[in-house]
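WARN retry 2 of 3 for item q-0093 after timeout on previous attempt; input resubmitted unchanged.
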Amino acid sequence: MSVLVFGSLNMDLVIRTHRLPQPGETIAGHSFETVPGGKGANQAVAVARLGVPVKMGGRVGGDEFGKMLIESLQVAGVNCEGVKVDEAVSSGVAAIAIDDAGENHIIVVPGANGQVDAADVDRLPLLGSKVLLLQLEIPLAIVLAAAQAAQQAGAIVILDPAPAPTQLPPELYAAVDILTPNQVEAEQLTGIVILDKASAILAARRLREYGVATVIIKMGAQGALCATVAEEFWVSPFRVRAIDTVAAGDAFNGGLAAALAEGRSLPEACRWAAGAGALAVTVKGAQSAMPTRAELVRLLS
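OK item q-0093 returned
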């Protein structure tokens, strides 16, 4: 059974400089690179590298970035038949300036991601997809429509609520099987400050009261909390040497979706997710950091 990822594709334009400029100031940078990204695309690559069939739905612009974004997914083994090329707009881009201390300035232009509409939902190959993986970098109303359509088709709906708003529509919670916020996103959605395991449990219970069946709160080096109607359990972290935490959450979601698509139990899927996220932080980059199935199997064993 396959995974369907519906969401954003962005080209990250990364400039590295010794320091960030002041308003109106021009300074010299020392490196530049274009890096395929977007939470949707990252998660699709994460699933593909774990050896599970995956399809991507979304939009890119009719520009060179759009071609590069699709090619990057195809090289990773992602089926891109659900990605529409929108000639009327640019592809989504994120202009990122990073200084030597790691501080950054980021400007995101949604481009084609902001034009995703109901027609894109209608094109989604929901039949045959065991899992639908969603994020919040496309219009919220379309995320809701996709979740409801997948629910009716019998798929497991996973929502990574990022970037998190202060609240989500009640009907979206009802259409989601598994919600996977990180610690900060869980705080934003519940208003509960998460300082430890006890406060994480309170936040998870609050989110379940909103109507979602299962909540998994990603807590970095502390592991993750999974709360269902039947139980609450902790997923122990893997001890690794972190180099770059970019897209670790995307790797986590990809691991979770891949395991569930293979019919694995929720506790086992959570271990896959935690392992994939841990391996991703040991490598620089986003899509390039997603672990292979062989790497994950070695870690889990």
